[in-house]
Amino acid sequence: MPAISSSYARLTAVHPALCVTNAAPRSDGGWTAVSDLAAGGRTVADFVAREAERLTARYGRRPRPDVAATLALHRYLWPACLLFTVPWFLRHRVPRLPPGAVSVHRASGAMTVRPEGFGCLPGDRAARLPGARTVPSRAALREELRSALAAHLAPVLKGFGPLLRRGPHALWGMATDEVAEGLWYVAGLMGESEESRARAELAALLPGGTPPFVGAAGFPVPQRGAGPARRTRLTCCLVYTLDPGAACAACPRALGRAGIRSPAYATARTTLRSRSSQPLWHGSSTPGPVRDP
């Protein structure tokens, strides 16, 4: 769908490991149909087992089952949320992508999508295209985005749920984290002004009180002389259980006084930015992107 694919091309341009192609979902040759993840059972168990093997190889110790499941879910949610937020951020367009419209390549993280329409604003040239659904305002488009995200995420969270030690509240807090952290990072790769805009847009998208999403995507204002203030995740990814020194810079366990990060946080952030060609989820390998299937 050209109305959406240009945004995915920009995403791949700034983060080459995130390759998105317009194609029917696949479940062969290393691909997993997301509808199968939503169904739970064997597909999710295999997805988690693969993550457990990767984590064991990286950290030299076997993760707890719930840790492997949490990081496997994070591994999917982080890029999946970008399928929705990047077109919204760049073009004010929101694709409708139920789980049955997406597949993911287990080794590279490449994804296929087949949008079932999209939301946009009345003045958008794409409003005349097949599948377009206009909404009256930017506030309405934000609601459209929350709705599209929830429709995709809810079945996936349910599919992973039995393997996690987390209830619905924590799972939707994790979803809020992935929406906010993913777009914030990718926008930063597009330039400082885009990162600043992303923070403002995310604060409006997820101000708190927008169920099923839990919590807000706000970013605190830094205090003078106290180092940079950055968003703290609502939930912990549990990677610290494998290596205490590998805790995320945004981990709630690392929060200092008044929400202010230490100078080490800025160093960690800079290090992450230097890896823009790599997947962001913990410990990913860096194979070349998988092209059109």
Radius of gyration: 18 Å
Helix content: 40-55%
Average pLDDT, all residues: 84
Strand content: 5-15%
Reading side by side through the largest sheet, how are the strands ordered?
A: 1-5-4-2
Helical region count? 8
Shape, per Cα inertia axes: globular
Helical/strand content category = alpha/beta
Distance between the termini: 16 Å
The low-confidence runs, each spanning 5 or more residues with pLDDT under 50, are 256-293
Describe the structure.
The protein is of the alpha/beta class and 293 residues long. The protein folds into 2 domains: 218 residues, no CATH class; 54 residues, no CATH class. The strands form 2 sheets. The chain has a 4-stranded mixed sheet. A hairpin with a 5-residue loop joins β4 and β5. α4 crosses α6. The C terminus is likely disordered.
